[in-house]
Amino acid sequence: MTPITEVEGHRVALSNLEKVLHPATGFTKGELLHYYATTADALLPHLRGRPVSFLRYPDGPGGQQFFAKNVPPGTPDWVTTAEVRRMEGPSRMVLVQDLASLMWASNLVTEFHTPQWTVHSPDEADRIVFDLDPGPPASVVECCEVACWLRERLAADGIEVLAKTSGSKGLHLLGAVRGASSERVTEYAKELAVEAEQALPRRVVHRMTRSLRPGKVFVDWSQNAARKTTAAPYTLRARTEPTVSAPVTWTEVEECSSPGRLVFRAPDIAPRLQDYGDLLAPLLDPAAARPLP
């Protein structure tokens, strides 16, 4: 029988709690649900108001993985949804607004991915994002070097960026912006990626072409497009270990000397939140948003 628990007045079914989802450490679905429950205060503000795309991995990283953008079948009627414009036409997507919705969605076993805009202002981007993706033998160490260059370049335009691990092998930079469409933010991000390649030609590539990427960091500017999404802060990733897209300090970025220094797993996050709080909290302050130059 599937256990039923009550979360904030809503009945939530939690299934297969003993199932191992991250085989390298034996991390179970019950542990995954506990992780999201205890990280909710930090995670939820970064999800609220944003249509969530689910990258589901119900049988772990070695099983089938698939994106679910539309409201999944069987979604409880108390889960908030919103109609969203997409290239193929309007669709209805989930908004994870509260703990009950988070626990219901977590039971699906999913990564959480969000766009750089909210359903309240879909024509205006409120985030700029750079996904720094290393081509082997480059690693997150080289990503950190590129991140520091981008940080200074964006600061020259009055935009403060913060960093988080991708939860895989790279690094994400995010900044709060205002007054521009996703299209304009994408153009600006591409301009800076090109500048980074010109300034660090042995380190950076701004094009996705696979043959150009070995040993370099691909500065992916395209995730600013309105149709694209990025792994949300604090989401678990579908990897053999329960790695997390974890916010990091700039000191950690500057001092990163080996890839393992910036790998964080689910058990690491509660102590980090206790020590640092939410390092990405400034993104949630409307007063911190800056216009593009």
TrEMBL record:
Gene3D superfamilies: DNA primase, PRIM domain
Primary enzyme class: ligase
NCBIfam families: ligD_pol
Enzyme Commission identifier(s): 6.5.1.1
The keyword Lipid metabolism is annotated on this UniProt entry: no
Name of the molecule in the record: Non-homologous end-joining DNA ligase
Keywords: Ligase
